[in-house]
Amino acid sequence: MKEDKKHLSVSAIQNGTVIDHIPAQNLFKVISILGLDGISNQITFGSNFGSEKMGRKAIVKIADKYFERDEINRIAIVAPNAKLNIIKDYEVVEKMVVEVPKEIRGIVRCMNPKCITNAEGIGTRFEVADKASVTLRCCYCEKITDPDHMEFL
Amino acid sequence: MTNKSLVSINDLSTDELVRLLDLAERFEQNPAQPVLDGRIVATLFFEPSTRTRLSFESAVNRLGGRVIGFSEAASSSVAKGESLKDTILTVANYSDLIVMRHPIEGSARWAAEMSPVPIVNAGDGANQHPTQTMLDLYSIRKTQGTLYNQRVVMVGDLKYGRTVHSLLLAMAQFNASFVFISPKELQMPLELKQFLNERGLRFEEHTELAENIKDADIVYMTRVQRERFSDPMEYERVKNAYVLRRHMLEGTKPNMRVLHPLPRVNEIHVDVDDSPKAYYFTQALNGVFARMAIMTAILGLTDRVK
Question: What Å distances lie between residue B223 and A87, B158, B214, CA to CA?
């Protein structure tokens, strides 16, 4: 009975990608970073599911869509523990985990108000200074932007 | 480092640093060398810094090169609203190398990414000022005979002072030990202390000046600015506590030298100036040699140096 209810909340897809273990509060950031708000594929998502590991989690299922490694790593800042299931004909054919990249372009604003990226409207670029906590060092002003102060573009 | 911009002191390996210092030494021994003959250097000072600009321009002139540029944004097209990108791309047409000073942090890296000619960062806000660090290193090596195993005492505003941060990072490559002397409000940032801990380098923190400079090789003074204090009373309490006076030099090591990035206000009393341990004016002279070396190396003209 319990299982059935879960299936009802987020229905299965025939082909596509399931992104699981997204922190519930970052669901819409993941959608925005992956540009899911601008594509025509069928998308179902659910949020605030209970998770033993992370409290409340969210899931996104995108029909007929597969992601490149670089694309998927872009969500590492907001969902470092996300897991991807690649679905073909209702079967999980591949599993992927997000890897925190060495460098992050765009997505995040540099928290230094005196940084050139906030002054001349140029794209941000960060070196990941600490992968575990996803702490970023701006390639321009060299200041640290930590997860507590992260603002998304 | 030919054709490479110099934006941050972290761009240079230890080897490159030492090679540049050796080159600067050759210029000190023989300053009149026209290795930049026929070259044009642009000095773009989007904020005024007379001392740094004159030092660069003196270096270019000694090398027989020519200088174009502006000394403040008000007298350039920036005042009309031109973007940094447009200014750099335009001036790159007129020059072989661009020296730039800009109040916005990261502006030099951005300029270096776009510019077809190399950029030398002469200060980007509170971020980096690598030629200052080079001349500090040159001064330390010259007065102590080596960069290795120095005991460096840093005094004053250690929280916001970019000069001391860059010098710390650079001297950490040479097994330095540090003493930080500052008011509580202006202590060395945590991440730099963590950096030293990770490297296994020793440091001490004090609030008292006179008694903690006795075993120093280098005493690096900086200015404590009123505007850095959230509580003006606190500034009044500490403002005279970080003034170096002649009598404090008694009992310090004979090789000890006092450095200061200048301009000085009152943090080194004028009675120190006559001491053989006062080195800050010669330090400024060393800046010319350091900048001669940097520009020569970047333009790939090292072979021309006698």
Answer: 63, 9, 21
Joined together, the tokens standing for residue B10 give 């972290």
Does the beta carbon of A135 lie under 8 angstroms from any beta carbon of chain B? no
Cα(B280)–Cα(B115) distance, rounded to whole angstroms? 34
Tokens of B157: 């505003």
Please report whether residue B1 resides in a domain: no
pLDDT band at B28 (very low <50, low <70, confident <90, very high): very high
| Distance (Å, whole) CA B294 – CA B274 | 31
Distance CA A12, CA A132 (A): 32
| Distance separating alpha carbons of residues B274 and B269, to the nearest angstrom | 11
B169 shares a domain with B66: no
Mutation site for A-interface testing, chosen from B10, B86, B88, B127 by largest number of A Cβ within 10 Å: B127
The total domain count for chain B is: 2
- Cβ of A116 within 8 Å of Cβ of B8? The answer is no
Å between B62 CA and nearest CA of chain A: 32
Calpha distance B70→B46 (Å, rounded) = 8
CATH architecture of the region A2-97: 2-Layer Sandwich (3.30)
Between vectors from CA B293 to CA B92 and to CA B8, what angle results, nearest 5°? 65
Window 89-128 of A: residues touching B by CB (8 A cutoff) are 110, 112, 114-117, 119-120, 122
Confidence (pTM)? 0.86
DSSP characters over B11-71 = GS-HHHHHHHHHHHHHHHHS----TTTT-EEEEEESS--HHHHHHHHHHHHHTT-EEEEES
pLDDT in tens, A34-71: 999 999 999 999 999 988 877 899 999 999 999 998 88
Is residue B252 domain-resident?
yes
In order, the DSSP letters of A94-128 are EEEE----SEEESSEE-S-TTBHHHHS-PPPEEEE
- Using a CB–CB cut-off of 8 Å, the residues of B that contact A are 8, 10, 83-85, 103-107, 109-110, 124-128, 191
Query: What's phi and psi for B93, nearest 5 deg?
Result: -70, -25
Closest Cα to residue B96, out of B74, B122, B65, B124?
Answer: B65
ipTM of the complex: 0.84
Is the CATH number of domain A103-152 2.30.30.20?
A: yes
Instruction: Select from A112, A140, A142 the Cβ nearest to the Cβ of B110.
Output: A140
**Helix (H/G/I), strand (E/B), else coil: B157:** coil
